[in-house]
Task: structure prediction
Amino acid sequence: MAEREISVDHSPILRWVRRYAPEFEKKWHRYAHLIWPSWRVDETYVKVGGTWTYLYRGVDKSGKSTVSHLSRNRAVGAAKDLFA
Result:
């Protein structure tokens, strides 16, 4: 709204969230997939913006990526950040 130079108070936005959040949640459940109890972590070395980084991905049993994390360093702490 600021890009279009429109001044909006926070209260209408809060009302919109309260009104449309339940509808959004109902529709979201149609498309959200469950994570299988069996999953694994995949580690890949990729170039992002000209810098080589490690990409950690959590992949479920059906092969769908569930979570991902980029790290400049390959360390135990970087892998543990994926689980947080």
In short: DSSP finds two helices and three strands in the chain. The first strand starts at residue 39 and ends at 48. The radius of gyration is 19 Å.
